[in-house]
Design brief:
Oligomer: heterodimer
Strand content of chain B: 5-15%
Order of helices and strands of chain B: EEEEEHHHHHEEHHHHHHEEEHHHH
Structural class of chain B: alpha+beta
Number of domains of chain B: 1
Number of strands of chain B: 10
Number of domains of chain A: 3
CATH topology of chain B: Cytochrome-c3 Hydrogenase, chain B
Radius of gyration of chain B: 23 Å
Distance between the termini of chain B: 28 Å
Order of helices and strands of chain A: HEHEEHEEHEHHHHHHHHH
Shape of chain B: globular
Largest interface: A-B, 41 and 45 residues
Helix content of chain A: 40-55%
Chain lengths: 298, 392
């Protein structure tokens, strides 16, 4: 230390320089000029996320909705800001669509967990952030119709992500259709054989359980073949194929899927749907399965 | 400030004052003054309270009181899936969300023996070192603020931090609550052009540090206020479990990046700055020197960043086998650890955070005793706490 106080003056020189430079190189990016927010400046970046919204395809908002009310996001949401009620048709049967889908954005922390767990790419993050409302509670509780936004909008705000998602969905759909075809052929063959062999049994089944289980069964049951083709082909009859897999990997069965079982078993078709996630949990294929379910109904 | 009754010299106090101790001095009879600093004191970096007993201006007793920001983090985590806690770890130490994510992800990966792809490891190193820059620059800014240099140095620090936060926002979608890492890798890859921008920011940082050092390091006021204030002896530091820059400022060479070499840290040559005295000045300088080392690591990591996947083969449903694991990293504030006990279900049986802020705070009384009350503020500033992490 040479002269007492010289350190302070050195520091003051730095502040003086900084002060002066604000007048000379205002436009320089690295000096972080103020962004004149409402008039200019795009603050939205590639992965900007604020609050989630629901996507619909096509023109019809409700009919094109991708969400099938599987309630996975509701369960996984860390601050528990999602509330879903499934829609029922006039017979009391569950339709794969949410009747109520509320997101309390005053609770939502924009963590994107719902987007990551959604097997249908139905919920994604918005970059809209100008949400000032007059009512603190009611207006910040977004209901289903407020949350629904078109796929075109998504393409506008996150083009790359949207394209990736669309490609993903298209690939899934193609795979599903191929599978469906194969399955239908197989089911037809099996049904013919079965019908010939055990007419009485099938008649018995038809009468008490109304018509839907029969419509449902051939569709939901052959989902097993996708995992172990050979096995399922040999015993393409009924439950055995679906029940064998959980025995193989019991560790893969989760609370999540168990919950799913409980919740989805409310409907009359619950039996089939509840068994599916269990067998495939952890394999990464369950979204395909679920997508199949979703398609099967809609 | 609480002053319930005053005792006039020579007269007999009629009521025994509560919590006051009479001190006999030659010719002057006085008593200890109990001051409750905080919880809304600007120097306490959040809602933190110091119950200080003062003899004149000298601290004779100090009791840290915290818990005002308790958010039930650990118990909440035990009631949700493993992934669900990831966004909440951002909110522990809100300056360092990336390292918090990493520590938690590391613990989770250890539980199921998950391999992390090389690119993800490098990106994690980049993010962690950027976080270290953010944390240390903010610490230095606030530390000088506590010393009385209101505004200017802090705003310079905020300006530099903003550039790094822009990088975080670009990569992860959020400035502070990044929520970027996942068990087995990262949520998304770095966007195009990110690396170029990051290199620009990192290359400009040493110039800022030079300027900042010129502004502060030789400043006589800072030297007088910080040197030999709040000396932490290495023995006490080790016994109290102090980690991070605070431990190294006391002259103990212990850096988890070297000792544990988690991630790919063994590939980067860097030095570990250490102090000699263990006073506030050393703690302040160790941080500035660490930033320079971080820049070295950053440059090398950016040069060597490989191409490839960013996500390992993580199971879709995270369900570790029964057992316990402790994952730790060298956070900017010290050893940040996550202790997880699994009972084989999808929810942790026990979830425990080892917060460096809280553990480093335990020696506060030892550091402050005998110093003036104004120094207590400086010492607290040099400990580097974030109440979000202390209280959880």
């Amino acid at each position: 230390m040479d002269l007492l106080g010289s350190g302070i003056f050195k520091g003051m020189a730095v502040t003086l320089k900084n002060f002066a430079m604000t007048y000379f190189d205002r436009g320089r990016k690295e000096r972080l000029p103020t962004v004149q927010y409402p008039e200019a400046g795009d603050t939205v970046t590639l992965f900007t996320r604020n609050f989630p919204f629901l996507i619909y395809d096509g023109e019809e908002e409700v009919d094109g909705m991708r969400c099938v009310a599987c309630q996975i996001c509701e369960r996984e949401c860390p601050p528990a800001c999602i509330y879903i009620v499934k829609e029922k048709d006039e017979n009391g049967k569950f339709v794969k669509r949410p009747k109520v889908f509320d997101i309390d954005v005053s609770v939502c922390m924009g963590c994107q967990i719902c987007v990551e767990v959604c097997p249908f790419d139905a919920i994604v993050m918005d970059s809209e952030f100008e949400y000032s409302k007059e009512d603190r509670f009611g207006d910040l509780l977004f209901n289903r119709d407020e949350l629904l936004k078109s796929n075109d909008y998504y393409h506008k705000i996150h083009p790359e992500e949207a394209q990736a998602r669309d490609a993903n969905l298209a690939a899934k759909k193609a795979a599903d259709e191929a599978k469906k075809k194969a399955r239908e052929e197989k089911a037809a063959a099996a049904a013919a054989a079965k019908a010939a062999a055990e007419k009485e049994a099938s008649e018995k089944k038809d009468s008490p359980e109304a018509s839907e289980p029969v419509a449902e069964e051939p569709k939901a049951e052959p989902a097993a073949p996708s995992e172990n083709h050979a096995k399922a082909e040999s015993e393409a009859k009924e439950k055995p194929a679906a029940e064998e897999t959980p025995v193989e990997e019991p560790a893969a069965a989760t609370d999540e899927t168990e919950d799913a079982k409980e919740e989805s078993s409310g409907g009359s078709e619950g039996k089939e749907t509840s068994e599916e996630p269990e067998e495939t949990a952890g394999s990464g294929e369950d979204d395909e399965k679920k997508a199949e379910e979703g398609e099967g109904v809609s | 400030m609480t002053m319930e009754s005053s005792v006039v010299a020579g007269s007999e106090p009629t009521v025994e004052p509560r919590g006051f101790e009479l001190i006999e001095r030659e010719g002057l009879e006085t008593n200890l003054l109990e001051v409750s600093m905080g919880p809304h004191h600007p120097s306490t970096h959040g809602v933190f309270r110091m119950d200080v007993k003062l003899d004149g201006e000298t601290v004779t007793e100090l009791r840290p009181v915290f818990g005002y920001l308790h958010r039930n983090h650990e118990k909440l985590a035990e009631d949700m899936g493993y992934l669900g806690s990831m966004p909440f770890t951002d909110r522990l130490d809100y300056f360092c969300s990336m390292t918090n994510n990493w520590a938690y992800a590391l613990a989770g990966e250890k539980m199921i023996d998950l391999e992390v792809p090389e690119r993800a490891e490098y990106v994690r190193v980049i993010m962690a070192e950027l976080t270290r820059l953010v944390n240390h620059i903010m610490l230095v800014g606030f530390f000088v603020n506590d010393l009385g240099a209101l505004g200017t140095p802090l705003l310079y620090a905020l300006r530099e931090r903003e550039k790094i936060l822009d990088l975080f926002e670009w990569a992860s979608g959020a400035r502070m609550m990044c929520n970027y890492m996942r068990f087995g890798g990262l949520r998304n890859d770095l966007p195009e052009g990110w690396l170029t921008k990051c290199r620009e920011v990192v290359d400009a940082f040493p110039y800022f540090l030079d300027e900042y050092e010129k502004l502060l390091v030789e400043n006589e006021i800072i030297l007088v206020r910080t040197q030999n204030v709040g000396v932490l002896k290495p023995e006490l530091a080790i016994n109290a479990g102090i980690t991070g820059p605070m431990l190294r400022a006391s002259g103990v060479n212990y850096d988890l990046r070297k000792v544990d070499a988690y991630g790919v840290y063994d590939r980067f040559p860097f030095r570990v700055p250490m102090g000699e005295v263990g006073d506030c000045y050393d703690r302040f300088m160790v941080r500035i020197l660490e930033m320079r080392e971080s820049i070295k690591i950053l440059r090398q990591a950016m040069d060597e960043l490989p191409e490839g996947p960013i996500m390992g083969e993580a199971p879709r449903v995270f369900k570790p086998p029964a057992g316990e694991i402790y994952g730790r990293i060298e956070g900017p504030k010290g050893e940040l650890g996550f202790y997880l006990v699994s009972d084989g279900t999808a929810k942790p049986y026990r979830y425990r955070v080892r917060p460096p802020s809280l553990v480093n705070l335990t020696v506060l009384e030892d550091l402050c005793l005998g110093h003036k009350v104004a120094d207590a503020v400086v010492i607290l500033g040099s400990v580097d706490i974030v109440l979000g992490e202390v209280d959880r």
